[in-house]
Amino acid sequence: MELQAVRGTRDLLPGETEKWAEVEKWGRAVFAAFGYRELRTPLFEHTELFQRGVGETTDIVTKEMYTFEDRKGRSLTLRPEGTAPVVRAYLEHHLGQGEAGQAKLYYLGPMFRYERPQAGRYRQFFQIGAEAIGYDHPSSDAESISMLVEFLARLGLSGLSVDLNTVGCPDCRPDYHRELLAFLKSREDRLSPDSRERLGRNPLRVLDSKLPQDIEATAGAPKTFNFLCTSCSAHFAGVQRHLGLLGVPFELQARLVRGLDYYTRTVFEVKSGRLGAQNAVAGGGRYDQLVGQFGGPARPAVGFGVGLDRLMALLQESGALIETEPEAHVAVVAVGEKAFPRCLALAHQFRRSLFNGFPVRTFLDLNPGRGVKSQMKRASASGATYAVILGDEELAKGEATVKDMVSEEQFSAPLGNVVQEIGARLELKGGKP
Ligand code: HAM
Q: What's the number of domains the chain is made of?
């Protein structure tokens, strides 16, 4: 049998990984600007965490979790999402600050769901997410959404829309549920088998169905925002007002309910018309009950998760340019085997020196004695801006020949000084970060 990656998983190859790292770097920078700090939680947790957090009636918990028993018979689950683990860690390490127990945390890494793989849907996928715990003002929902939009804008993405809805709170949701259930019952025969089954457990889930049959059958369903209690209604109006203040365009989307049970009040998704069926790049919302549900104090919270696989596909497809930092890149070329040891040491010296705060990327052919022409070809293919050429002649003079790979101009520099010399020239060429 040929060994292959497991269905629904994939390798990210050189060429892709650099782009991923760049995107992650922008995420970190934008989130830090909003006061968020990174939290890394384990890839697996006690199964109960997700059962209680994400919800027993959700697709995630009923059929998509990678759950296994460890050698002592404990039930563990590969994390299907990041919010429940963040809340657990928040409580476990008392991360809340001040009276309101505030903490702004972000995370990135793989999540696991046993879904049917298709374009944009994997069984191991990556998220970058952010959670603001201890925040209840509508401006915090708006800030969270604006941070997400700012992150996506930094990557040069356009043509995205923010869908916004509210799912109310435990005070007003029962009224809505009752009304929705009556509506759905009246057209039960037109629903898909899956939705008919969901009907009894959680009618909201039916609105979440992406099947055309269900979308058609539920057209004209009652809208949550017509059933809100006074405080949920004020909150929803506040979120919209603050989004306006921040200049974030959005569309009200009555069908948007999200697939996780912990949401209260605000829910949102960022979609792209370019992504096909799996069109949500990011999703999130408010979860005011979750910290309390995990045994903590009442702590309102809001956050989102971005699907990095879908984000990368969008970047690829739209040709959006990710800004990259200028980078120094040098090649050291040995003319004849005798010069090789000196070249190896010189390459090491370049790699230990910093340009723009980073080690200088240095190419050296590790086949001593390869022809100069072939080495120069490789140097140029590797993207070097300067080649430092050393042979018997140069060694005798204590000099190196330096070739500017762009202008093809050549000059000599004292061997003891060549790193500084090139460093100074790169400084002149390279823009500021
Ligand atoms: P979610 O909507 O389940 O929310 O996932 C967020 C994003 O992850 C989706 O919009 C999508 O881009 C990506 N995603 C989900 N499943 C897959 C998959 N199988 N393959 C590829 N990408 C996928 C959450 O996970 C919540 N924890 C978000 C949140 C944070 N809410 C509040 N705070």
A: 2
Measure the CA–CA gap between 204 and 180, rounded to whole angstroms: 8
Domain closes at, from 318, 350, 381: 318
**Which CATH number covers residue 141?**
3.30.930.10
Candidate of 310, 311, 312, 315 to mutate for ligand 1, largest count of ligand atoms within 8 Å of Cβ? 310
Atom of ligand 1 nearest to the CA of 123: 19
pLDDT tens for 177-209 read 999 999 999 999 999 998 998 888 888 889 988
Nearest residue to 314 via CA among 266, 352, 278, 269: 278
Instruction: Determine the residue of 61, 79, 81 to mutate for testing ligand 1's pocket, defined as the one with the most ligand atoms within 8 A of the Cβ atom.
Output: 81
User: Looking at 269, 290, 318, which one is the last position of a domain?
Assistant: 318
Instruction: Kindly give the distance from the C-alpha atom of residue 123 to the centroid of ligand 1, in angstroms, as a whole number.
Output: 12
DSSP state of 226: G
Global pTM? 0.90
**Residue 394's domain is classified under what CATH number?**
3.40.50.800
Q: Are 76 and 70 in contact (CB under 8 A)?
A: yes
